[in-house]
Write a structure and sequence with these properties.
With 204 residues, this protein is α+β, with helices and mostly antiparallel strands. The protein contains eight helices and twelve strands.
Length: 204
């Protein structure tokens, strides 16, 4: 296994990504200099970019042992692996500040609902390789129970936000605007999911 190097969380790591025809099946092995091995799968966050969703430790024989709490290993070095997939283009569009119209939301009981298919229609008509379902998957990473949700309604992908979130959004909003409203929550969740890497660095 030819592993590449990266410097993260105060330590040098080695990693190897198993390229796949499906991003859902793209695994990555992380190795610490001490010999610790971890296995995860490549995921994409709309704000923080690529990361490994690490669910297992591995022994010398590659036997898997589940982590009690899956950990997220964020690294821009993983972005090269997602370039063949449409999600890379969508991530770029969001990073460039793509604006969603607030008036695309429709009131729906306890939430305001926005159709990804409708708001992305202009990009699709320009020939941009956009997939509303993949955009839904990106926004799924920003879910907060009963506050921000990404799911399906009548087999079409939608974003749902509660009234407080809706009122806080500007008339033309970006994914960064949505993130900023609940930034404290997202930062706390990230810290919780990265704690193992900091613990390993502190133990060295």
């Amino acid at each position: 296994m030819k592993m590449q190097k990266l410097q993260k969380y105060g330590l040098q790591w080695r990693y190897d990504i198993n390229q796949s025809s499906s991003i859902d099946e793209m695994s990555v092995v992380l190795k610490q200099q001490s010999g610790l091995l971890f296995l995860g799968y490549i995921e994409v966050h709309p704000i923080w970019g690529t990361y490994a969703d690490v669910r297992y430790t591995l022994d010398d024989k590659k036997n898997r042992y589940s982590l009690l709490v899956p950990q997220y290993f964020y690294a821009e070095e993983f972005e090269e692996a997602i370039q063949p997939f449409r999600i890379a283009k969508l991530l770029q569009i969001l990073r460039e500040g793509y604006k969603f119209p607030k008036n695309a939301f429709k009131e729906d009981k306890n939430y305001y609902r926005m159709s990804f298919t409708t708001v992305l229609k202009n990009l699709m008509e320009k020939g941009t390789p956009i997939d509303a379902d993949i955009m839904k998957d990106l926004f799924f990473k920003l879910e907060i129970p009963q506050v921000v949700l990404a799911g399906y309604y009548r087999k079409r992908p939608f974003l749902y936000v509660n009234e407080q979130t809706y009122n806080a959004l500007p008339e033309q909003w970006t994914v960064q605007d949505l993130f900023s409203i609940h930034q404290n929550y997202y930062q706390q969740q990230r810290q919780f999911r990265e704690q193992l890497w900091y613990d390993i660095a502190e133990a060295r």
